[in-house]
Amino acid sequence: MARKYGKNKTTLNNVLKLVKALLPLADDKEIAVPGDKLKATFCVEWVKEDELLVSGKVQETRRNRTQTVEKGITKKDLWTLVEYLGEALELSPPKDEKNKPPEADRKDNAIQDILDCLKDLDILVEETIKGKPTVKTHGFWKFSLKLKHQTAEIKDNLKVIEERWQIKIGSIATKTSDETFRSKNKFLNWREICSQKLAEKKFTTKVFQRYGAELQLDKNYVRLAIVEQKLPKSLSRNQQEEKEEEKPIPIAEECFFEEVLRQGKSQISQGRKIAIIGEPGSGKTTRLQKIADWILKPDQEDLGFPIWIDLADLKNQNICQYLENEWLPKCKGEVKLSDLEPQISQAWLLLDGVDEMSHTQRMEQLAKDLSSSWVQDARVVVTCRVNVWEADKNAFSGFDVFRNLPFKPEQVTDYIRRWFAGIGDAATGESLEAELAQSENSRLKELIQNPLRLWMLCQIWQTGGGLPETQAGLYGQFVDWVYDWKADEEILDQREAIDTALARLALVAMEQKDEVSRSRLRESWVLKVLGSRPIFEAVKKLGLLNRVERFPEAICVFYHATFQEYFAALAVDDWDYFLPRNHVNFPVAGKEYRIFEPQWKQVILLWLGRDIADEEKEGFIEKLVNFDDGCENFYWKQAYLLAEAGIEEFPKFDFDKVLPIDKLSSAFPNPFETIHWARRKNKLWLELYNWLYPSSCMPSEELKNTSDIDTILKLAKNEKFRHLAIEKMKEIYINNPDCIYYLNEQIYRSYDKDIYCLIAWFIGEIQTPKLELIKTLIYVLENSQDILVHSATFESLYLIIKKHFFVEIISIIKKYIKFESGYSSDCYFHRYSYGLVRYMASNINYLDFYQAWYS
Prior knowledge:
- The protein is an alpha+beta fold.
- The chain folds into 5 domains: 9-176, no CATH class; 223-405, P-loop containing nucleotide triphosphate hydrolases (Rossmann fold, 3-Layer(aba) Sandwich); 406-486, no CATH class; 572-667, no CATH class; 671-800, no CATH class.
- The chain has a 7-stranded mixed sheet.
- Helix 16 (451-462) packs across helix 17, helix 31 crosses helix 33 and helix 36 (803-813) packs antiparallel against helix 37 (828-841).
- The longest helix has 22 residues, at 671-692.
């Protein structure tokens, strides 16, 4: 006799909630529910285009070997899954309130109602063993769901259930899901919408969830300190030439949230435009997640709402197009652009992964959109790797920059204790602490101050692994751990082929010039490079490669960017791949100089930590240290700094014996000379500021009412009206951009210092990257001897030069650099020139620079 259950609104809502929770797991993602709450790890996959298999895996120990076995999932696990997503299933009211059954039994019955209902709707089919349901033989459920299609959206797959309900059971009054997000007065609950989207984001990011250990979040989260990278205390709009001074006192996370984000205590943007930079695995994404959680705290509704965007998802769209075409349509409640625009000042755009965007022009476009489009009133927090940010930070000149600091030793200890306490094995954590305390492990202790690497070490140590010596060793042991956990015998038998194919894929992907193509890999392309579908299925099963999208084309990504870099390093046999062995003092035809491309830095460091012959590593480092670029050592410093970083992965090398002292003294000037130059430059900026904004400034009715540029320039001769003249010119430019060409002509007609300085500054203010304006600024440099004119002109050049102008500018500016006195030259003009060329050298490839230098 069939079991009875309530065929009512509660049952239907519960059915939809459970299936909705299962569907996202089909893209090879394993749920990040704390492991001590699950008996089995979810395993959900499309076995046919319209058939979803739901099962689970457990750890079993046989003959002293722990292995993963697929058995199924328990009803308690199904309840926990939905509960973890914040959409707890409803319990039917008990018939007798005084004698109601235990809550555990009521939850069990609610899940059973769902399964029975899905069977009655001909959607659920139980898997069997020898003709018996799996629940009868193993105590675990393993079943298939017949839905619309694996490429269909979640709502369309759920619609199949609703339609079957109508046919089999009939209509009932059900509350539409949109009502949750739109109140009676028709205003959208943006905090609820964003909270739901963040919940979906979080549970699809944890692949290596084992024994309850989560990456840096929740119980295991240890707050990272952060340091502000402050501009020198000058009035410069842009200080590319001088390195930012870091605030000496780290900022605790709570202070960063309250003082910078809430109270707006930051130097440039008053807390509205923030960049969080850091090394790979330093916790940038985690910090962003914590900011989102902080914004959404129930008692902080005044903070607004967080919109999370992975910048790699933009593809060929700008931020505004993405919000309209991708983000909004996927929100619940049928929200539109017209709903979001009026509320944008309450939004926080949390933009993860500037370094994963498509080339520099896209970064510049993003920065422009954030300051001039309909999203300009939103508060913004972006994350980026340090090396990418340093190469292109000019695009985000209006941002306050904060850098994630590594864990302190006491934080490492705290993390280890939390991690192992979380899995109920404090003793193993204590043994790890004891090993790390040994003097021979001092290098490793520095290595694991990085949150990602510390998490990996905990995973390795938990299962009896040893302590690695290098980053590459750590990643290698972690991959071994993954195979031990997830691989069946068939995968283990073909491990060598899998690793080789994955390394080839990682390297070929890294070679793509477009950052998006490099990190977000089309599945059809992945299959072609791997050359084998079984290998493709194996790496997905291992979790090293994951499918993140299905429509309109399936997209795959590596678990973390550093794993892609590790496997790419495994595919490089000879350091000639990074730097031609036969380089002398000019570019080798047909060869790549990857040592100067920021995306290869981590690959090179991992390569140096591999099990490669010491003499090969020594040869590579010596080649870097003695690199001769043939154009006054503009690239030598980059090569040297890479070698210096590489020593951390190859500590046996005697670095001191190969140091070229003569190059070091010119590339790294005497600190007293640097301070002297910085003071002089700040003094120049004070003079320029006082010239532009004198204390005697006052309003002018004539300026206010005129649109005649000649009149404006004439009035600007009076220091009282100078700053107003610039503002008036900007106002005219907004309505008539062609006026810049008339201003440009005035430079060539006049030899007036005031006109030169005013127009040079104005060109920097409007930041219009046109070659004729750059030539005008260079003309000013060549035809004026005034120190303030030079200051304003160089500063504007920094703001408007783009990569496609570098070659021409380098060929002109180089003649103003006095190399006989080196970088320590007392001539400010040559200092400015050197700094500008050095900036361009760090943002253009070596071959192009060399050709420009000798053009």
